[in-house]
Amino acid sequence: MEKPTKRILSGVQPSGDLHLGNYLGAIKNFVTLQKEYECFFCVVDLHAITVWQDPKVLVNKTREVTAAFIASGIDPKKNNIFVQSQVPQHAQLAWIFNCVARMGWLNRMTQFKDKAGKNSENVSVGLFSYPTLMAADILIYLATHVPVGDDQKQHLELTRDIAQKFNNDFNTELFPIPEPLIFGEATRVMSLRDGSKKMSKSDPSDYSRIMLTDKAEDISQKIKKAKTDAEPLPQNKESIKERPEVENLISIYASLQDISIDQVISEFSGKEFSVFKKNLADLAVSKLEPITSEMNKLMDDRSYIDSILNKGKDKAISVAEPVLTKTKEIIGFLP
Ligand code: AMP
Ligand code: TRP
Predict the structure, then answer these.
(1) Domain match, 267 and 180 both
(2) Sorting pLDDT into bands at 50, 70 and 90, what band is 240?
(3) For position 234, which CATH number holds?
(4) In the Cβ-directed half-sphere of 328, how many Cα atoms lie within 13 Å?
(5) Which residue of 75, 116, 177, 206 pairs with 120 in a disulfide if CB–CB is 3.0 to 4.6 A?
(6) Distance from chain centroid for Cα 99
Protein backbone atom coordinates (compact mmCIF):
# COMPACT_ATOMS: atom_id res chain seq x y z
CA MET A 1 0.00 0.00 0.00
CA GLU A 2 1.35 3.39 -1.02
CA LYS A 3 2.06 5.78 1.90
CA PRO A 4 1.20 9.36 1.00
CA THR A 5 3.40 12.21 2.27
CA LYS A 6 1.14 15.15 1.46
CA ARG A 7 -2.46 14.08 1.76
CA ILE A 8 -5.20 16.19 3.32
CA LEU A 9 -8.52 15.15 4.78
CA SER A 10 -10.94 17.63 6.26
CA GLY A 11 -14.63 17.58 7.05
CA VAL A 12 -17.51 20.01 7.36
CA GLN A 13 -20.86 19.11 8.91
CA PRO A 14 -24.06 19.66 6.93
CA SER A 15 -25.85 20.62 10.12
CA GLY A 16 -26.95 24.19 9.40
CA ASP A 17 -26.02 27.17 7.31
CA LEU A 18 -22.31 27.61 6.69
CA HIS A 19 -21.02 30.80 8.24
CA LEU A 20 -18.04 33.11 8.01
CA GLY A 21 -16.17 31.04 10.66
CA ASN A 22 -16.41 27.93 8.49
CA TYR A 23 -15.28 29.91 5.49
CA LEU A 24 -12.33 31.81 7.01
CA GLY A 25 -11.27 29.10 9.48
CA ALA A 26 -11.49 26.17 7.08
CA ILE A 27 -12.83 26.38 3.52
CA LYS A 28 -10.72 29.37 2.42
CA ASN A 29 -7.62 27.49 3.56
CA PHE A 30 -8.73 24.36 1.66
CA VAL A 31 -8.73 26.47 -1.50
CA THR A 32 -5.12 27.51 -0.89
CA LEU A 33 -3.94 24.03 0.06
CA GLN A 34 -5.40 22.24 -2.97
CA LYS A 35 -2.46 23.50 -5.02
CA GLU A 36 0.07 21.63 -2.93
CA TYR A 37 -1.72 18.58 -1.52
CA GLU A 38 -3.79 15.64 -2.62
CA CYS A 39 -7.11 16.50 -0.97
CA PHE A 40 -10.14 14.65 0.39
CA PHE A 41 -12.94 16.98 1.44
CA CYS A 42 -15.76 15.25 3.23
CA VAL A 43 -19.31 16.35 4.04
CA VAL A 44 -19.62 14.68 7.44
CA ASP A 45 -23.29 13.75 7.74
CA LEU A 46 -22.58 10.95 10.26
CA HIS A 47 -21.19 13.65 12.55
CA ALA A 48 -24.20 15.88 11.92
CA ILE A 49 -26.68 13.27 13.26
CA THR A 50 -24.98 13.23 16.67
CA VAL A 51 -27.61 15.90 17.31
CA TRP A 52 -31.11 15.81 15.82
CA GLN A 53 -31.37 16.68 12.11
CA ASP A 54 -34.58 17.01 10.15
CA PRO A 55 -34.15 14.47 7.29
CA LYS A 56 -35.42 16.83 4.56
CA VAL A 57 -33.13 19.60 5.70
CA LEU A 58 -30.13 17.28 6.10
CA VAL A 59 -30.24 16.00 2.53
CA ASN A 60 -30.43 19.56 1.24
CA LYS A 61 -27.60 20.82 3.48
CA THR A 62 -25.39 17.94 2.34
CA ARG A 63 -25.65 19.21 -1.23
CA GLU A 64 -25.30 22.80 -0.04
CA VAL A 65 -21.94 22.17 1.69
CA THR A 66 -20.76 20.51 -1.54
CA ALA A 67 -21.90 23.58 -3.48
CA ALA A 68 -20.10 25.85 -0.99
CA PHE A 69 -16.83 23.95 -1.47
CA ILE A 70 -17.03 24.32 -5.24
CA ALA A 71 -18.31 27.93 -5.18
CA SER A 72 -15.44 28.92 -2.85
CA GLY A 73 -12.91 27.71 -5.40
CA ILE A 74 -12.23 24.05 -4.66
CA ASP A 75 -11.73 22.39 -8.02
CA PRO A 76 -13.93 19.28 -8.08
CA LYS A 77 -11.89 17.77 -10.91
CA LYS A 78 -8.65 17.92 -8.99
CA ASN A 79 -9.93 17.12 -5.48
CA ASN A 80 -12.12 14.43 -3.99
CA ILE A 81 -15.36 15.79 -2.58
CA PHE A 82 -17.63 13.17 -1.06
CA VAL A 83 -20.21 12.33 1.60
CA GLN A 84 -19.14 10.47 4.74
CA SER A 85 -22.17 8.12 4.96
CA GLN A 86 -21.55 6.95 1.38
CA VAL A 87 -18.16 5.55 2.36
CA PRO A 88 -18.95 2.86 4.96
CA GLN A 89 -15.26 2.34 5.82
CA HIS A 90 -15.35 5.46 8.04
CA ALA A 91 -17.89 3.97 10.43
CA GLN A 92 -16.18 0.58 10.40
CA LEU A 93 -12.82 2.05 11.38
CA ALA A 94 -14.55 4.28 13.95
CA TRP A 95 -15.79 1.17 15.78
CA ILE A 96 -12.27 -0.17 15.94
CA PHE A 97 -11.06 3.21 17.25
CA ASN A 98 -13.79 3.12 19.91
CA CYS A 99 -11.92 0.11 21.21
CA VAL A 100 -8.54 1.89 21.05
CA ALA A 101 -9.45 5.28 22.58
CA ARG A 102 -9.79 5.40 26.37
CA MET A 103 -12.78 6.80 28.29
CA GLY A 104 -10.44 9.20 30.09
CA TRP A 105 -9.31 10.70 26.77
CA LEU A 106 -12.86 11.34 25.61
CA ASN A 107 -13.92 12.63 29.01
CA ARG A 108 -11.49 15.50 28.51
CA MET A 109 -13.02 16.74 25.25
CA THR A 110 -14.17 20.31 25.82
CA GLN A 111 -16.45 20.37 22.76
CA PHE A 112 -18.51 17.52 24.25
CA LYS A 113 -18.74 19.34 27.56
CA ASP A 114 -19.84 22.54 25.82
CA LYS A 115 -22.39 20.79 23.63
CA ALA A 116 -23.78 18.49 26.30
CA GLY A 117 -23.83 21.16 28.99
CA LYS A 118 -26.10 20.24 31.87
CA ASN A 119 -27.89 17.76 29.67
CA SER A 120 -25.11 15.14 29.52
CA GLU A 121 -27.36 12.23 30.58
CA ASN A 122 -29.66 12.87 27.69
CA VAL A 123 -27.40 13.52 24.69
CA SER A 124 -26.65 10.79 22.14
CA VAL A 125 -23.83 8.30 22.68
CA GLY A 126 -22.63 9.43 19.24
CA LEU A 127 -22.01 12.95 20.51
CA PHE A 128 -19.61 11.51 23.09
CA SER A 129 -17.75 9.20 20.72
CA TYR A 130 -17.76 11.79 17.90
CA PRO A 131 -13.95 12.31 18.03
CA THR A 132 -13.21 8.61 17.35
CA LEU A 133 -15.22 8.91 14.12
CA MET A 134 -13.26 12.03 13.26
CA ALA A 135 -10.02 10.09 13.81
CA ALA A 136 -11.34 7.39 11.48
CA ASP A 137 -12.23 9.99 8.81
CA ILE A 138 -8.62 11.11 8.80
CA LEU A 139 -6.74 7.86 9.26
CA ILE A 140 -8.77 5.74 6.83
CA TYR A 141 -7.01 7.80 4.11
CA LEU A 142 -3.63 7.78 5.92
CA ALA A 143 -3.95 11.56 5.74
CA THR A 144 -0.83 13.41 6.82
CA HIS A 145 -2.31 16.92 7.23
CA VAL A 146 -5.65 18.22 8.48
CA PRO A 147 -6.72 21.85 7.92
CA VAL A 148 -9.28 22.96 10.51
CA GLY A 149 -10.33 25.94 12.62
CA ASP A 150 -8.80 26.37 16.06
CA ASP A 151 -11.78 24.73 17.82
CA GLN A 152 -10.79 21.31 16.40
CA LYS A 153 -7.26 21.29 17.82
CA GLN A 154 -8.13 19.01 20.74
CA HIS A 155 -9.89 16.50 18.48
CA LEU A 156 -6.78 16.35 16.34
CA GLU A 157 -4.59 15.69 19.34
CA LEU A 158 -6.90 12.79 20.17
CA THR A 159 -6.56 11.54 16.58
CA ARG A 160 -2.79 11.58 17.00
CA ASP A 161 -3.10 9.67 20.30
CA ILE A 162 -5.32 7.05 18.68
CA ALA A 163 -2.92 6.57 15.76
CA GLN A 164 -0.01 6.26 18.16
CA LYS A 165 -1.74 3.80 20.49
CA PHE A 166 -2.94 1.62 17.60
CA ASN A 167 0.58 1.54 16.12
CA ASN A 168 2.09 0.68 19.52
CA ASP A 169 -0.50 -1.90 20.53
CA PHE A 170 -0.15 -3.81 17.27
CA ASN A 171 3.50 -3.08 16.65
CA THR A 172 2.87 -1.50 13.27
CA GLU A 173 3.52 1.80 11.48
CA LEU A 174 0.29 1.70 9.53
CA PHE A 175 -1.14 5.04 10.64
CA PRO A 176 0.65 8.36 10.16
CA ILE A 177 0.57 10.89 13.01
CA PRO A 178 -1.34 13.67 11.22
CA GLU A 179 -0.38 17.34 11.51
CA PRO A 180 -3.01 20.02 12.07
CA LEU A 181 -2.94 22.96 9.66
CA ILE A 182 -4.44 25.91 11.53
CA PHE A 183 -3.48 29.16 9.84
CA GLY A 184 -4.65 32.56 8.65
CA GLU A 185 -5.71 35.65 10.60
CA ALA A 186 -9.13 34.20 11.54
CA THR A 187 -8.62 30.71 12.95
CA ARG A 188 -11.31 31.37 15.54
CA VAL A 189 -14.05 33.71 14.35
CA MET A 190 -16.18 34.92 17.25
CA SER A 191 -19.89 35.76 17.48
CA LEU A 192 -20.74 39.27 16.28
CA ARG A 193 -22.89 39.70 19.40
CA ASP A 194 -20.46 38.37 22.02
CA GLY A 195 -16.69 38.30 21.58
CA SER A 196 -16.29 35.51 24.13
CA LYS A 197 -18.34 32.97 22.14
CA LYS A 198 -17.29 31.44 18.84
CA MET A 199 -19.40 32.02 15.76
CA SER A 200 -21.47 28.88 15.39
CA LYS A 201 -24.31 27.30 13.47
CA SER A 202 -26.20 26.64 16.68
CA ASP A 203 -26.25 30.17 18.15
CA PRO A 204 -29.92 31.16 18.45
CA SER A 205 -29.22 34.70 17.21
CA ASP A 206 -28.98 35.18 13.43
CA TYR A 207 -27.18 38.44 14.14
CA SER A 208 -24.31 36.50 15.74
CA ARG A 209 -23.09 35.16 12.40
CA ILE A 210 -22.77 35.95 8.73
CA MET A 211 -23.99 33.08 6.61
CA LEU A 212 -22.71 32.14 3.18
CA THR A 213 -26.34 32.30 2.03
CA ASP A 214 -26.87 35.86 3.34
CA LYS A 215 -27.86 38.64 0.96
CA ALA A 216 -25.67 41.75 0.68
CA GLU A 217 -28.12 43.85 2.77
CA ASP A 218 -28.11 41.25 5.55
CA ILE A 219 -24.32 41.18 5.66
CA SER A 220 -24.13 44.99 5.89
CA GLN A 221 -26.84 45.10 8.52
CA LYS A 222 -25.20 42.42 10.68
CA ILE A 223 -21.82 44.16 10.55
CA LYS A 224 -23.41 47.52 11.33
CA LYS A 225 -25.10 46.01 14.40
CA ALA A 226 -22.03 44.03 15.51
CA LYS A 227 -21.08 44.70 19.11
CA THR A 228 -18.08 47.03 19.63
CA ASP A 229 -17.20 49.55 22.32
CA ALA A 230 -17.11 53.31 22.60
CA GLU A 231 -13.39 53.75 21.83
CA PRO A 232 -12.08 54.40 18.32
CA LEU A 233 -9.95 51.77 16.57
CA PRO A 234 -6.76 50.84 18.44
CA GLN A 235 -3.23 52.06 17.69
CA ASN A 236 -1.53 48.69 18.11
CA LYS A 237 -2.06 44.95 18.42
CA GLU A 238 -1.47 44.82 22.21
CA SER A 239 -4.36 47.11 22.99
CA ILE A 240 -6.92 44.88 21.25
CA LYS A 241 -6.34 41.97 23.60
CA GLU A 242 -8.89 43.27 26.12
CA ARG A 243 -11.33 44.18 23.36
CA PRO A 244 -12.44 40.80 21.96
CA GLU A 245 -15.22 42.15 19.73
CA VAL A 246 -12.80 44.64 18.20
CA GLU A 247 -10.12 42.02 17.73
CA ASN A 248 -12.66 39.79 16.02
CA LEU A 249 -13.77 42.40 13.46
CA ILE A 250 -10.16 43.33 12.71
CA SER A 251 -9.22 39.66 12.22
CA ILE A 252 -12.17 39.15 9.90
CA TYR A 253 -11.09 42.15 7.84
CA ALA A 254 -7.48 40.92 7.69
CA SER A 255 -8.47 37.44 6.65
CA LEU A 256 -10.97 38.54 3.99
CA GLN A 257 -8.45 40.98 2.51
CA ASP A 258 -5.46 38.61 2.90
CA ILE A 259 -3.43 41.13 4.89
CA SER A 260 -2.05 41.05 8.44
CA ILE A 261 -3.81 42.37 11.54
CA ASP A 262 -1.03 44.97 11.85
CA GLN A 263 -1.79 46.23 8.35
CA VAL A 264 -5.49 46.62 9.20
CA ILE A 265 -4.61 48.50 12.39
CA SER A 266 -2.25 50.87 10.62
CA GLU A 267 -4.93 51.58 7.98
CA PHE A 268 -7.74 52.30 10.46
CA SER A 269 -6.14 53.26 13.80
CA GLY A 270 -7.86 56.16 15.50
CA LYS A 271 -10.79 56.07 13.07
CA GLU A 272 -14.41 55.75 14.21
CA PHE A 273 -16.03 52.34 14.13
CA SER A 274 -18.72 53.56 11.74
CA VAL A 275 -16.02 54.12 9.12
CA PHE A 276 -14.34 50.77 9.73
CA LYS A 277 -17.64 48.89 9.73
CA LYS A 278 -18.66 50.45 6.42
CA ASN A 279 -15.36 49.31 4.89
CA LEU A 280 -15.68 45.86 6.43
CA ALA A 281 -19.24 45.46 5.17
CA ASP A 282 -18.21 46.43 1.63
CA LEU A 283 -15.27 44.04 1.77
CA ALA A 284 -17.36 41.15 3.11
CA VAL A 285 -20.02 41.69 0.45
CA SER A 286 -17.45 41.88 -2.34
CA LYS A 287 -15.80 38.62 -1.22
CA LEU A 288 -18.93 36.65 -0.27
CA GLU A 289 -21.42 37.71 -2.92
CA PRO A 290 -19.71 35.82 -5.79
CA ILE A 291 -19.60 32.69 -3.61
CA THR A 292 -23.26 32.98 -2.65
CA SER A 293 -24.40 33.50 -6.22
CA GLU A 294 -22.30 30.56 -7.47
CA MET A 295 -23.70 28.39 -4.65
CA ASN A 296 -27.24 29.28 -5.69
CA LYS A 297 -26.47 28.44 -9.29
CA LEU A 298 -24.96 25.09 -8.32
CA MET A 299 -27.92 24.27 -6.07
CA ASP A 300 -30.18 24.54 -9.13
CA ASP A 301 -28.19 21.76 -10.78
CA ARG A 302 -28.63 18.82 -8.45
CA SER A 303 -27.49 16.25 -10.98
CA TYR A 304 -24.16 18.05 -11.36
CA ILE A 305 -23.59 18.08 -7.58
CA ASP A 306 -24.57 14.42 -7.31
CA SER A 307 -22.22 13.49 -10.13
CA ILE A 308 -19.32 15.15 -8.29
CA LEU A 309 -20.24 13.32 -5.09
CA ASN A 310 -20.51 9.98 -6.90
CA LYS A 311 -17.10 10.36 -8.41
CA GLY A 312 -15.71 11.43 -5.02
CA LYS A 313 -17.30 8.41 -3.34
CA ASP A 314 -15.73 5.95 -5.79
CA LYS A 315 -12.29 7.47 -5.36
CA ALA A 316 -12.65 7.64 -1.55
CA ILE A 317 -13.67 3.97 -1.35
CA SER A 318 -10.78 2.93 -3.57
CA VAL A 319 -8.34 4.52 -1.10
CA ALA A 320 -10.17 3.62 2.14
CA GLU A 321 -10.90 -0.05 1.44
CA PRO A 322 -7.27 -1.29 1.32
CA VAL A 323 -6.50 0.60 4.55
CA LEU A 324 -9.47 -1.03 6.28
CA THR A 325 -8.46 -4.47 4.96
CA LYS A 326 -4.94 -3.97 6.28
CA THR A 327 -6.26 -2.75 9.65
CA LYS A 328 -8.47 -5.83 10.00
CA GLU A 329 -5.61 -8.14 9.13
CA ILE A 330 -3.40 -6.44 11.78
CA ILE A 331 -6.11 -6.85 14.43
CA GLY A 332 -6.62 -10.52 13.64
CA PHE A 333 -9.98 -10.49 11.89
CA LEU A 334 -10.68 -13.16 9.27
CA PRO A 335 -10.43 -11.72 5.76
P1 AMP B 1 -18.28 22.43 11.48
O2 AMP B 1 -19.26 23.41 10.96
O3 AMP B 1 -18.34 22.31 12.97
O4 AMP B 1 -18.32 21.14 10.77
O5 AMP B 1 -16.86 23.06 11.17
C6 AMP B 1 -16.24 22.97 9.91
C7 AMP B 1 -14.90 23.66 9.93
O8 AMP B 1 -15.06 25.05 10.24
C9 AMP B 1 -13.94 23.11 11.00
O10 AMP B 1 -12.62 23.07 10.47
C11 AMP B 1 -14.03 24.11 12.11
O12 AMP B 1 -12.87 24.17 12.90
C13 AMP B 1 -14.24 25.40 11.34
N14 AMP B 1 -14.96 26.40 12.17
C15 AMP B 1 -16.20 26.28 12.69
N16 AMP B 1 -16.54 27.37 13.39
C17 AMP B 1 -15.47 28.21 13.31
C18 AMP B 1 -15.19 29.53 13.82
N19 AMP B 1 -16.09 30.19 14.54
N20 AMP B 1 -13.99 30.08 13.53
C21 AMP B 1 -13.06 29.42 12.77
N22 AMP B 1 -13.26 28.18 12.27
C23 AMP B 1 -14.45 27.59 12.53
N1 TRP C 1 -15.44 17.76 13.87
C2 TRP C 1 -15.26 18.71 12.82
C3 TRP C 1 -16.05 19.99 13.15
O4 TRP C 1 -17.06 19.93 13.79
C5 TRP C 1 -15.72 18.17 11.49
C6 TRP C 1 -14.94 16.98 11.10
C7 TRP C 1 -15.36 15.70 11.07
C8 TRP C 1 -13.58 16.98 10.65
N9 TRP C 1 -14.38 14.87 10.62
C10 TRP C 1 -13.28 15.61 10.38
C11 TRP C 1 -12.62 17.96 10.48
C12 TRP C 1 -12.01 15.23 9.94
C13 TRP C 1 -11.34 17.56 10.03
C14 TRP C 1 -11.04 16.21 9.78
O15 TRP C 1 -15.68 21.03 12.76
Answers:
(1) no
(2) confident
(3) 1.10.240.10
(4) 13
(5) 116
(6) 26
